[in-house]
Amino acid sequence: MRFANHDLRNRSFRRQDLTQADFSGADIRGCDFSGARLVKANFSGARAGQSRRQIAVLGAAIALTVGLVGYATHQLVYGSLGSGSGDRTWLLVQVLFAVLMLAGAASASRAWRRSTLTKTVTATLAGAILGFFQVGSATNNSPQAALVGAVAGSVVLLAASLRWQGRWQIAISTSGTLMAYGAAFLIGTQAIAFLSVQRFAEGTALGLLSLLYLWLTLVSLTVVVRDAHRAIGTSFRAADLTDAQFDGANLCNTDFSDAMGQPNRQ
């Protein structure tokens, strides 16, 4: 089979038998060769990586996450302002504090160590925020229904992050950044409240904690940029690449995980 110098962007070759196929000089950005048999295939001079369509999808995923998680976080944070220890929603406000702080810290930690645990924690907490807000809004702010929504949302996003890890990466990173900023803002308002009544010790401590979470927000933002830059474009996941040739090929943003045989890149 000859595909030399063809524009093959975004085509799927999943699990196909492409033994000795010629892809030399072809544009294979966005192609999916997962599980394909590519024994002695020729990819010399081919161009792999992200296609424009994939870049647009990444942008859309970021925008959708900002619209959903960002809006939910914004509404919950602003709705909690002014709550005191005597209010019946005070416990929920403390839970909101904990969720935003944990999610922000987990997301930022991925700048130093990429971990499935921190990613699933961030996804689970983002689901809880979304479920709590959406169900609560739909049920006239019923705390019981909102809590059920939080549990359901966390389970759904946890399952999604485990099932489609690569595709959800950018959305999870963006969610963590938004929640880190939400934590910084919420803690900052508490710091100002303490300082306004001359409780300087508590106000100063919370002010420093707010600055810490602003820094974690910036760190989380670098994770979003990194994940976008490293997003998989062309996939050879679990493909059989025995004696395949890749000399002179551009292989940025290419996934060779679980592939059989090392690509020959002379």
The structural domain count equals 2
Shape: elongated
- Helix/strand-derived category reads mainly alpha
Spans of 5+ residues with little confidence (pLDDT < 50)?
Answer: none
**What's the count of strands?**
2
Tell me the helix content: 55-70%
Order of adjacent strands in the largest pleated sheet? 1-2
N-to-C SSE series?
HHHHHHEE
**How many helical stretches?**
6
From the structure provided, what is the oligomeric state, counting identical versus distinct chains? Answer: single chain
| Largest pleated sheet | 2 strands, parallel
Mean pLDDT: 89
- The gyration radius over C-alpha positions equals 23 Å
- The fraction of residues assigned to DSSP E strands is under 5%
- End-to-end span in angstroms? 23 Å
Structure description:
It contains six helices and two strands; from the N terminus they run H-H-H-H-H-H-E-E. The protein has helices spanning 52-80, 90-109, 116-138, 143-163, 165-196, 200-230; strands at residues 234-235, 254-255. The two termini are 23 Å apart. It has 266 residues and is mainly alpha-helical. It is elongated, with a radius of gyration of 23 Å. The longest helix has 32 residues, at 165-196. It has a two-stranded parallel sheet with strand order 1-2. The chain has two domains: 1-51 and 233-266, E3 ubiquitin-protein ligase SopA (Pectate Lyase C-like), CATH 2.160.20.80; 58-230, no CATH class.
